[in-house]
Write a structure and sequence with these properties.
The complex is a heterodimer of chains A (397) and B (288).
Chain A: H1 3-7, E1 10-19, H2 23-31, H3 36-43, E2 46-56, E3 61-66, H4 72-76, E4 87-92, E5 95-96, H5 102-111, E6 113-116, H6 128-132, H7 134-138, H8 143-156, H9 172-185, E7 190-194, H10 202-219, E8 222-227, H11 230-236, E9 239-244, E10 247-252, H12 254-259, H13 264-271, H14 281-284, E11 290-292, H15 298-307, E12 313-316, E13 322-326, H16 337-342, E14 344-345, E15 350-351, H17 356-364, E16 370-373, E17 379-383, H18 385-392
Parallel strand pairs in A: 3-8, 3-9, 6-7, 7-8, 11-12, 15-16
Antiparallel strand pairs in A: 1-2, 1-4, 4-5, 9-10, 12-13, 13-14, 16-17
Helix pairs in contact in A: 8-9, 17-18
Chain B: H1 8-50, H2 53-68, H3 71-86, H4 90-120, H5 122-137, H6 140-151, H7 155-179, H8 183-191, H9 196-225, H10 227-232, H11 238-247, H12 251-282
Helix pairs in contact in B: 1-4, 1-6, 2-3, 2-12, 3-12, 4-5, 4-7, 4-9, 4-11, 5-7, 6-7, 7-9, 9-12, 11-12
Classes of the chains: A alpha/beta (397), B mainly alpha (288).
The structure holds adenosine-5'-diphosphate and magnesium ion (MG).
């Protein structure tokens, strides 16, 4: 088997989907450069998705972002073969989805992946408990087992006490929690979420995003998430694919999309985004002069200070942790190794993954760039007043 | 006048000969085939006639209450039945009710599977729907006469004619109800790997039930509409009283029996409708 196929959890390669009477003909036309509108006018075929290739890594949240009608729903439905491609291949764990027999496909859908829908798609005639248990009962699991597991997930999504309600008795946000619990209850590796939060009020949507991220921290599912909302994409996505008129325009991390939009179209999108809520401290920190405490000499210290604009040095332990910042006194003669060891200035520090909005205030209030550390405490860089400022005022970084 | 392009006499002779052939050679077989239906009808009729009148009134009252949760409907139903008894129409009412119930239940057994099949296959639907149109618009005397020739006058042709007239709305509405089930719900259960059977039994049929119930309601109404015609060929009951009233120019007899039919129609219409509505509420479909 092809290696590149195997390392992706989900791989979509050169998938095109044409709706209409003569899909192959339409595909030929589009290859020869005819526009999609023209094809629709001439042949009555609608090009839903054209030549999309992307790979989703195990455990990541991969977001597909695009405006309404850009082919997102069509694309995601290829993964569980609710829609079959006109051409191209879809691999899940290296297995070609199109090669599955009907029985295999059913087993695949029952065990390997589940889906959350924009309009929830709940069974209106079943109570919450039965809805959440649906995927398990379809597998033929005993009723008691289904209900036990369903109960667990009902608690996980915060619906305790609503087990015996009917979907129509719940708010949209709660209905989607049922949808999420139903999807998680079968314990699939892969979660397909088609605009799962788009129908919800902004505040509820925020809660749901938060909850998804929290769940993901322990579950490590492979999630294919669809949205038309760039902020949502940037907030949730480990990587994002931007879809326009059925074609992928760019694939990248939120930072790559924000900082290096591939074309004018994406640039226009990105312009209105509140970067400070998306970009992390790591993306705006600068390199600063450092020295190891163990290698400290008066001579090297003076050289270091003279060589940089900041006129200060971040002193590190041998294991890479920050010992403190040496802010030299005005009189040059007092810049000595001994003084540096005595007078290290302790500063608050910022987590490298922290969102700028939450930490900018620290940097703004400090004349000394605030150190940035990663999870294990290692020093990574520092954020200056001006870097924090420019990130906040949405100007291009 | 339209020119005489061909001799239609030949066609008619051919058809008549075919019917004669069927009557002579298949008559017994067909009668044997239809006899379970006759037995079914007789069981219901005997059951209704041997049950004490107050129990039947009570059961109908209880059904009315259970389906609507309204005391007023229940009381109204019981009062109407009591009145029919007072007017000396009890036995005829029971016979008519038996014919209606037998025809409706048979229609459900035949109609729902056909409706479900039609909903699954476009080509089948394109054959079935025109046939249903013919069944509903063809004047019933046209098939009553060969029916009488085949089975002899009596209850068999009567119930067959009633079923032919009453089953189309049920087939139609079953097909419609199943096809109109929310596509997003179907897609969702498909995504969870539900089999066709699981989708049909667990989702489509339950969600189509209110529409199917409307079909059952119409079927009962159509069955009652046939009772006068059915009584012309040997079914007794209220329809027969109407016929006699007309024959003897006894307006009172015809009128009272006619009102009896109306009363039965109202009772079963209200009960099945209320049940359909409750079903809809119970399925929590009301805001769809
Ligand atoms: N079953 C279908 N038949 C015909 N056209 C379709 C069908 N499904 C989607 N389309 C068309 O394909 C395009 C992409 O649709 P969709 O994938 O639903 O977009 P999105 O989810 O991004 O809003 C649209 O132009 C839509 O009209
Ligand atoms: Mg969509």
């Amino acid at each position: 088997m092809n290696m590149t196929v195997a390392e992706y959890k989900v791989q979509i390669s050169n998938v095109s989907k044409v709706f209409g009477p003569k899909p192959m003909e339409a595909l030929k036309l589009i290859k020869s450069g005819t526009s999609k509108e023209e094809i629709q006018k001439k042949t009555g075929n609608i090009v839903g998705v054209y030549d999309v290739s992307l790979g989703v890594l195990p455990g990541e949240i991969f977001v597909i972002m695009g405006l309404s009608g850009s082919g997102k729903s069509t694309l995601i439905r290829h993964v569980n073969r609710l829609i079959e491609p006109t051409s191209g291949n879809i691999f899940v764990d290296g297995v070609d989805v199109m090669r599955m027999s009907n029985d295999e496909l059913r087993e695949f859908r029952r065990h390997r992946l589940s889906m959350v829908f924009q309009r929830f798609g709940l069974l209106p005639h079943r109570q919450v408990l039965d809805n959440v248990a649906y995927g398990l009962s379809v597998r033929g699991l005993a009723r008691k087992q289904c209900e036990e597991r369903a109960q667990h997930w009902i608690e996980q999504v915060g619906l305790l006490g609503f087990e015996n309600c009917y979907p129509s008795e719940l708010s949209g946000g709660m209905q989607q929690r049922v949808g999420l619990a139903r999807a998680l209850a079968t314990d699939p590796d892969i979660l397909l979420m088609d605009e799962a939060f788009s129908a919800l009020d902004p505040l509820i949507r925020n809660d749901m995003q938060q909850q998804l991220l929290e769940l993901q921290r322990t579950l490590h599912k492979t999630i294919l998430f669809i949205t038309h909302d760039l902020e949502e994409a940037l907030r949730l996505g480990d990587r994002i694919a931007i879809l326009k008129d059925g074609e992928v325009k760019q694939i990248g991390t939120p930072e790559q999309i924000l900082l290096k939009p591939a074309d004018k179209y994406i640039e226009r999108f990105v312009r209105d985004v509140n970067r400070a809520r998306i970009l992390t401290a790591g993306s705006i920190m600068d390199a600063v002069p450092t020295m190891k405490v163990s290698e400290l000499t008066t001579k090297s210290l003076r050289e270091k200070i003279n060589a940089n604009e900041l006129k200060l040095v971040y002193m590190l332990e041998d294991d890479g942790r920050l010992a403190g910042v040496f802010i030299p006194p005005n009189t040059k003669s007092e810049i000595t190794a001994a003084a540096a060891k005595r007078n290290l200035c302790k500063l608050p520090h910022i987590d490298v993954d922290a969102v700028i909005e939450e930490v900018a205030i620290l940097a703004l209030n400090s004349s000394v760039p605030i150190p940035v550390v990663c999870e294990n405490g290692k020093f990574k860089g520092a954020i200056s007043q001006s870097a924090a400022m420019s990130a906040l005022v949405r100007s291009k970084v | 006048m339209f020119p005489d392009l061909m001799d239609s006499q030949n066609i008619r002779i051919a058809i008549d000969n075919a019917v004669d052939y069927m009557v002579i050679n298949w008559g017994d077989t067909l009668e044997a085939l239809a006899s379970p239906l006759l037995q079914f009808l007789n069981i219901i009729e005997r059951g209704l006639l041997t049950t004490p009148w107050w129990l039947i009134i009570f059961v109908l009252g209880a059904l009315a209450y259970l389906s609507s949760r309204k005391w007023t409907l229940s009381a109204g139903v019981m009062a109407m039945m009591f009145l029919l008894g007072l007017l000396d129409l009890w036995e005829d009412t029971m016979k008519t009710m038996a014919l209606m119930l037998a025809a409706t239940l048979t229609s459900i057994v035949i109609g729902m599977p056909i409706g479900i099949l039609a909903s699954h296959s476009k080509s089948l639907r394109s054959i079935i729907l025109p046939v249903l149109d013919v069944m509903q618009t063809m004047p019933s005397f046209v098939y009553l006469i060969p029916g009488v020739m085949l089975f002899g006058p009596g209850k068999i042709p009567a119930i067959l004619a009633t079923i032919i007239y009453a089953v189309p709305p049920l087939i139609r509405l079953t097909d419609l109800g199943i096809r109109l089930v929310d596509k997003q719900v179907i897609e969702a259960v498909e995504a969870f790997g539900a089999s066709d059977r699981q989708i049909l039994l667990g989702v489509r049929i339950p969600l189509a039930m209110p529409t199917i119930m409307a079909g059952i309601n119409q079927t009962t109404m159509m069955a009652l509409a046939m009772v006068v015609i059915a009584s012309m060929i040997g079914a007794g009951g209220l329809g027969y009283q109407v016929l006699q009233g007309i024959g003897r120019l006894e307006v009172s007899r015809g009128l009272l029996a006619g009102l009896g039919i109306v009363a039965l129609a109202i009772i079963f219409d209200r009960i099945t409708q209320a049940y359909g509505r409750r079903l809809q509420q119970h399925l929590h479909l009301e805001d769809k």
